[in-house]
Amino acid sequence: MTRTPRTGPGRGWLLRLVIAFAFAQGAVSMARPAVSYRALALGADEAAVGVIAGVYALLPLFVAVPLGRRTDHGRCAPLLPFGVLLISGGCALSGIASSLPAMAAWSGVMGLGHLCFVIGAQSIVARQSAPDEQDRNFGHFTIGASLGQLIGPVAAGALISGQGGTLGRTSALALLVSAAVAAVALTWLWRIEHRRAKGAGGRPGHKVPVRAILGARGVPAGIFISMAVLSATDILTAYLPVVGEHRSIAPATVGLLLSLRAAATIACRLVMSPLLGLLGRRALLTTSCLLAGLLCAGVALPVSVPVLAVMLAVLGFCLGVGQPLSMTTVVRAAPDRARSTALALRLTGNRLGQVAAPAAAGLIAGAVGVAAPFALLGVFLVGAAGLGLRGEGRPEPAPAPGESGTVPVPSESAPAPVRPESATAPVRPESATAPPETGTAPVRRPGADGAPRS
Fold first, then answer.
1. Residues 6+ apart with CB under 8 A from 352
2. Which tens digits make up the pLDDT trace of 5-56?
3. Could you give the CA distance from residue 243 to residue 370 in angstroms, rounded to a whole number?
4. Which is deepest, 127, 156, 286, 312, by most CB within 10 Å?
5. Rounded Cα–Cα distance for residues 167 and 114 (Å)
6. 3-class DSSP assignment, residue 245
7. Is the pLDDT at 356 greater than 60, yes or no?
8. What does the H/E/C string look like for 354-366?
C-alpha cells in the first residue's frame, strides 16, 4: 500500500509534534493572563485590557489565509520554528514593555506566532496521515493543546501570586518564564516533516478561490463546529469564575473545576480511536455536540458543587471531540490543493469566535444575567450538532487510476489469451466501432472484413 510510507517510520514525528505543541501552547496559556495582569500594573482599565487581549486574536486574521496559501504550495515545517520564535519574542518583550500600546503590539506578535505554529502543524498532520489515520492523529495532536491549557494558567497563577510583591514585577517574571517555555519547543522540532510530504502541495500559481473552498460541502460545517466548541471553552473559562462569585464558590474550587474540564478533554482525545470504532465519526460528532449543548445550558442551573463537577467533567469530555473531528471534516471536504488554506480559514473562524463570543456574552450577561451566555452556548452547540448530523462533504472518493468505465482497454484484456498475436489488432479499421459492444463480440469476428490477417 502507498499509505504506509506517507506516515514515515513509525509515529515519532507525531509524538515530537505533540510535545512541541504542548510547550508552545503552555507558553501562550501562561502568557495571556500574565499580559492582563501586566497591563493592569501599567494602569490599564478593563476596556484597555480587553483591547490588548483582542489584538492577540485580531492581528492574525489578516495573515491566516496568505499563510495557508503559502503552505499549500510549499513546505510546512519552516512555520513551526518561526512561530515559536514569535511566541517567545512576544512573551519576553511583553514582560519588559513599559507602555500599553507596546503591550498590545507584542500581544499581537504572540498571537501571530501561535497562528503560524498551528497552521504549519495541522498541515503536517493532514499531509502525513492516511485518511483512516486522520481522526486519530488529529486527536493526539490536540492533546498537546489541552496539556498546555491545563498547565499554563496554573503556572502563571503560581508565579504571579507566589511572590507576594508588586503585580508589575511578578507578571513580568511570568512573561519571561513563558518565553523560556516556548523556546523549549524548538528542541522537539527535528525531522517533523518527511521528504515525501514536502512536495505535497499543488503547483504554485494555481490557487483555489476562497469562495470555492467555503462552497465545498462540509467546510462551513467544520468551521462552525470548531467555532462553537472553542467559544464554549473560552466562555466557560471566562464566566465560570463569575458564576462562582454569584454562588459563593471559592476561587480555588473554580480553578479545580476548570482543571477537571481540561483533564476530561485530554482523556477524550486519548480514547478517540475506540470511540470512533464504536460509534462512527458522524454519530460521535453529533452526539458530543448535542450533549455539550445541554450541559452548557445546565451550568446556568443552581446545582451543588459536586453535581457541577460531574457536569463539567462530562462537558469537557464532549468538547474534546469537536476540535480534532472538525479538522478532519475540513481536510476531507476541501479541494486537495487547498487543504492548508481551508485549515487557515477554520482558524480564522476560531479567532473570530474568540473575539465575538466573549463580547456578545458580556453584553448578554450585563442585560439578562450571568446565566444567559451559557444558555446561548447551548443553542450554539445544538446547532453544531445539527450540522454534524448532515455529514461531511466529499465522501473521500477512491480514485480509480485511469479507468473511465467502458474504455476499450478492459475489453481487450479478455481476448488476449485466445489471440496471442493480438498486438497487431489495432490495425483493423473497424476497431473504432468496437467499443459500444463491450462484450467479447469483437474477438469472435476477427475476419469480418474478409481479410484473415491474424
1. 57, 61, 227
2. 443 445 788 899 999 999 999 999 888 888 888 888 888 776 777 778 778 8
3. 7
4. 156
5. 26
6. helix
7. yes
8. HHHHHHHHHHHHH
Between the two ends of the chain, the Cα-to-Cα distance in Å is: 40
* CA atoms of 18 and 23, how far apart (whole Å): 9
At 442, list the grid cell: 469483437
Q: Which amino acid is at 119?
A: I
Would you state the cell numbers that stand for residue 363, as one nine-digit string? Answer: 453584553
Contacts of 185 (CB under 8 A, 6+ apart): 19, 20, 21, 23, 24, 27, 84
Q: What is the pLDDT of residues 381-439, one digit of tens each?
A: 888 888 766 655 554 444 444 443 333 434 333 444 444 444 444 444 444 444 444 44
Q: Copy the grid coordinates of residue 335.
A: 479541494
Closest CA to 371 of 236, 252, 230: 236
Pick the closest to residue 193 from 57, 81, 90, 45 (CA basis): 81
* Residue 384: burial class (beta carbons within 10 Å; 0-12, 13-18, 19+): buried
Say yes or no to pLDDT of 350 above 90.
no
State the residue for C-alpha cell 501552547: 25
Output the nine-digit C-alpha cell for 410. Answer: 478492459
Residue 165, all three cell numbers: 510583591
Distance CA 122, CA 130 (A): 14
Side chain identity at 62, as an amino acid letter? F
- Tell me 401's DSSP state: S
Residues listed for the chain: 454
Grid coordinates of 125: 498532520
